[in-house]
Amino acid sequence: MTQPLRIAIAGLGTVGGGIVKMVQKHGHLLEKRAGRPVVITAISARSRNKDRGVDLSAYAWEDDPVALARRDDVDLVIEVMGGEDGPAKACVETALQNGKHVVTANKAMLAMHGQAMAEMAENAGVALRYEAAVAGGIPIVKALTEGLAGNGILRIMGVMNGTCNYILTEMENTGAAYGDVLKDAQELGYAEADPTVDVGGIDAAHKLALLSSVAFGTKVDFASVQIEGIERVTLDDIKNARDMGYSIKLLGVARMNPDGLEQRMQPCLVPSNSPLGQLSGVSNMVVVDGDFIGQTVYQGPGAGEGPTASAIMADVMDIARGLIIPVFGQPAAGLVKSDASGTGSDAAYYLRFSLQDQAGVLATLASILGNYGVSINRMHQYGHDGKTAPLVIVTHTTSRAALDNALAKISALAASLAAPVALRIETI
Ligand SMILES: NC(=O)c1ccc[n+]([C@@H]2O[C@H](COP(=O)([O-])OP(=O)(O)OC[C@H]3O[C@@H](n4cnc5c(N)ncnc54)[C@H](OP(=O)(O)O)[C@@H]3O)[C@@H](O)[C@H]2O)c1
Predict the structure, then answer these.
(1) Rounded mean pLDDT of 256-263?
(2) Is 121 among the domain residues?
(3) CATH number at residue 396
(4) Which mutation among 141, 308, 312, 315 tests ligand 1's pocket best, with the greatest number of atoms within 8 A of CB?
(5) Rounded to an integer, what distance in angstroms lies between the CA atom of residue 315 and that of residue 310?
(6) How far apart are CA 398 and CA 387, in angstroms?
């Protein structure tokens, strides 16, 4: 196959600019590795005259990304505009309908429309690839669909949002409060002016929903991901967790339980000395448990021009070599709609209570926990001021339902001064 692979790029921002740079720098290398030239023929963005720091004069320009997706001189469309609907969706659908391969970094779009788009691609006999959409430069989709294809997947777990990991590790390392670290992250360009999608866990949940589909053969089901962001993680909890040998991470976890698919994106405690506990700054990490291989760990940069362009070009190179695998690792028509797990899996929990400092309160609390079958592993009472007694408990493994019932009872006590905090401890 010596015909060139002709690509079009819709979107010339951080990611699109990186792709242009990579193709311009490594054109010769790409050709040698793919066995055919990989060339850009056409591009699109909103503003034609913006200086993007790269020479775009050799490429045809389209104002409309949908027109770009229809061009006869294009075999593959790279969509890097963003947005779950609108021009991105229209561009991708048009490309697929016109028999063109698509590579995208757009997790929000695929989390919503992944199943329909996968069916569209597979019916048209073209590839739809999205390595860059999950954990940036880390080749985790490839690891799951290819490297681990012989394994039953038992659990996927990971830190998939660099902004959140930066904020939590800065809080842990410097003792600065959430709001101050978020402001720094915005100044450093690690967080958007409107950080909600990142700190609220939504961006990472989009990624988890895509990985769940590949791992468990289910239709992408973003709506069933239980999402809790990092906004309510306090410095006290970070310090208490560290005292007990844990770090707090915004952790995505997916596993198949007897009653359905569990998908959670929430702050969890992990052992400080584990690979996840050691992960600092804007890095991402995904941990996969397979039934034959055991545990594998993937770490790397989760965002940025270079890492994201790297992931996009990995997909492009597979297509250039003629490798077309099903979008979610098996034919989309065979993906099943799983129920969401109602009970979730059992775990140990970190609990923090603010209690009135009076005789008998501790005994009452312990007996309520005991009545619901929640047993105490470790307990630490922090310096009380004569009025309040902050109490931290690490439980043994328990069901969330039992814990919630116990916490509701404890909250209702007159001696309970604030809602208890409960954070799951994930085993590694
Ligand atoms: N940045 C990262 O590190 C990263 C990592 C992983 C995944 N992603 C994903 O990659 C995608 C792109 O991200 P990015 O950071 O590169 O975004 P960006 O810097 O904001 O760039 C977006 C590009 O899309 C163009 N665009 C927007 N609307 C358009 C329209 N209606 N018609 C034509 N062009 C349009 C913009 O044109 P103008 O330049 O003319 O305004 C811009 O060039 C998103 O889906 C994002 O979630 C990004």
Answers:
(1) 96
(2) yes
(3) 3.30.70.260
(4) 308
(5) 9
(6) 31
As a whole number, the mean pLDDT across the chain is 96
Q: Residue written as tokens 């016109």?
A: 98
Eight-class DSSP state of 290:
E
Q: How confident is the model at residue 189 (pLDDT cuts 50, 70, 90)?
A: confident
Domain, as residue range, for 233? 144-301
pTM greater than the 0.90 cutoff: yes
Mind telling me the catalytic residues? 207
Q: What is the mean pLDDT of residues 119-126?
A: 98
> Per residue in 22-77, pLDDT tens?
999 999 999 999 999 999 999 999 999 999 999 999 999 999 999 999 999 999 99
Same domain assignment for residues 171 and 50: no
Kindly state whether residue 309 falls inside one of the protein's structural domains: no
| Same domain assignment for residues 161 and 282 | yes
What CATH number has the domain bearing residue 176?
3.30.360.10
211-254 pLDDT, tens per residue?
Answer: 999 999 999 999 999 999 999 999 999 999 999 999 999 999 99
> Would the CB of 11 count as within 6 Å of ligand 1?
yes
Q: How many domains does the chain have?
A: 3
- Domain-ending residue, one of 77, 101, 133: 133
**294 and 160 fall within a common domain:** yes
Is the distance from the beta carbon of residue 308 to the nearest atom of ligand 1 less than 6 Å? Answer: yes
Q: Is the CB of 284 under 6 A from ligand 1?
A: no
Question: What ranges in 217-267 are assigned the alpha helix state H?
Answer: 235-243
Residue 325 CB partners (closer than 8 Å, separation 6+): 127, 145, 146, 318
Instruction: Give the end-to-end CA distance of the chain in Å, rounded to a whole number.
Output: 45
